[in-house]
């Protein structure tokens, strides 16, 4: 595996792979890699001949200075980990390399980016699109891999791809969970032992809510309220939102059939997100 920190070096490596007729896959990450990222890389490995993993904590997508400052940075361990799973290039640039000048682009992302994370974290998705569009430009991948834990992010990136008229395929990969159900996240390491012990209840409450649909409870508002009430009743958790939405538009679901429930929970100063799919009736 080659570790590259310049855009020029990255372009050269990818050009050589293209010249050799290889299918190029990109896995964009912000590092602090865990089994969730590895599952994206494994999928990319299966479907592509040349796999680039970017490791870059993108400042433009953080709307909270403390979150940016405390975001885990573990480049050495990340490289050691992905070396074992057949990555061709780890792209680990500096901020100056990615943003030689401030990125002032504003993407017209529409309603998909206005709800949930878009409403709670102003500018977040614009920042995600700034960096992801740059990575797509640097690598020009055939396929790019994203985890469904950030369900809304995938919808926003699809919208950006449409806006920019890009040809690549966006591959959505299922959420990876700990054995106790907690969705894998780079932020989990910031939970105290007590918080970590109760954090799996987020998924438990969501899964129970989904099972109610099989018992005939299908009212979207009622189901939404139940999740909020149950999670807020757990000492140490505070729900920022629980929204049951249409999986494509991300707008409030008209029917529970095929909808997705997206949650954000604060545990102290750690913000965890998760989601769950409701059955198609
Ligand atoms: O999902 C993430 O880790 C980031 O938002 C991404 C896609 C790597 C862009 O910085």
CATH C-level of the largest domain? Alpha Beta
What overall geometry do the principal axes of the alpha carbons give?
globular
**Helix- and strand-based class?**
alpha/beta
State the major sheet.
6 strands, parallel
**How many strand units?**
9
List its salient traits.
19% strand, 2 domains, Pantoate--beta-alanine Ligase, Chain: A,domain 2, globular, 281 residues, six-stranded parallel beta sheet, three-stranded antiparallel beta sheet, alpha/beta, binds pantoate, Rossmann fold, 40% helix
In words, what does this structure look like?
The protein is of the alpha/beta class. The chain folds into 2 domains: 172 residues, HUPs (Rossmann fold); 90 residues, Pantoate-beta-alanine ligase, C-terminal domain (Pantoate--beta-alanine Ligase, Chain: A,domain 2). Helix content is 40%, strand content 19%. Strands 1-4-3-2-5-6 form a 6-stranded parallel sheet, with helices on both faces. Strands 7-8-9 form a 3-stranded antiparallel sheet, with helices on one face. The longest helix has 16 residues. The protein is globular and about 55 Å long. The site of pantoate (PAF) has 10 residues, from strand 2 and helix 7. Pantoate binds next to strand 2 and helix 7.
């Amino acid at each position: 595996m080659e570790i590259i920190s310049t855009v020029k070096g990255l372009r050269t490596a990818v050009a050589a792979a293209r010249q050799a007729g290889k299918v190029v896959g990109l896995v964009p990450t912000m590092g602090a890699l865990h089994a969730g990222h590895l599952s994206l890389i494994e999928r990319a490995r299966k479907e592509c001949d040349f796999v680039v993993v970017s490791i870059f904590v993108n400042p433009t997508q953080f709307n909270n200075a403390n979150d940016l400052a405390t975001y885990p940075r573990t480049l050495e361990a990340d490289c050691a980990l992905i070396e074992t799973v057949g990555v061709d290039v780890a792209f680990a640039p500096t901020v100056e390399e990615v943003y030689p000048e401030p990125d002032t682009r504003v993407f017209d992302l529409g309603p998909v980016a206005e709800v949930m994370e878009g409403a709670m974290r102003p500018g977040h998705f614009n920042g995600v699109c700034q960096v992801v569009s740059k990575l797509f430009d640097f690598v020009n991948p055939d396929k790019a891999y994203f985890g469904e834990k950030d369900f809304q992010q995938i919808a926003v990136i699809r919208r950006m791809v449409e806006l920019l008229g890009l040809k690549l395929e966006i591959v959505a990969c299922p959420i990876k969970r700990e054995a106790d159900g907690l969705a894998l996240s780079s932020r989990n390491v910031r939970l105290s032992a007590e918080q970590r012990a109760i954090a799996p209840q987020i998924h438990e409450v969501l899964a129970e809510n989904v099972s109610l649909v099989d018992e005939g409870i299908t009212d979207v508002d009622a189901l939404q309220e139940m999740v909020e009430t149950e999670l807020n009743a757990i000492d140490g958790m505070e729900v920022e939102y629980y929204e049951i939405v249409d999986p494509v538009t991300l707008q409030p679901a008209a029917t529970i059939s095929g909808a997705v429930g997206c949650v954000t929970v604060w545990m102290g100063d750690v913000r965890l997100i998760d989601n769950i799919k409701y059955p198609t009736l």
